[in-house]
User: Fold this.
Amino acid sequence: MKIHNVEIQKFKAASNTPHGQVMLKMDALISPKAAVDGIEPSSMLIMTEANARVLMALLKSQLLQFDATKPKSRHGRPG
Assistant:
């Protein structure tokens, strides 16, 4: 497995695919990361607080779009 550090510079856009995926367009610096003995290898996603807030807003927007395309149930308990 290859592991990397991914540093988000700027989020540019977000969209949904018909297959239920969220796609994010961004500028990022990606660099290989050396494995450390005794620690499970994992890639790291690094961003500022401001970028984290943008990511949260983009994800909320995309989730609302997913919800808007789902049919409303006429049965069951109200919301």
In short: The beta strands are 4-16, 22-32, 44-46. The first helix runs from residue 49 to 69. The longest strand covers residues 4-16.
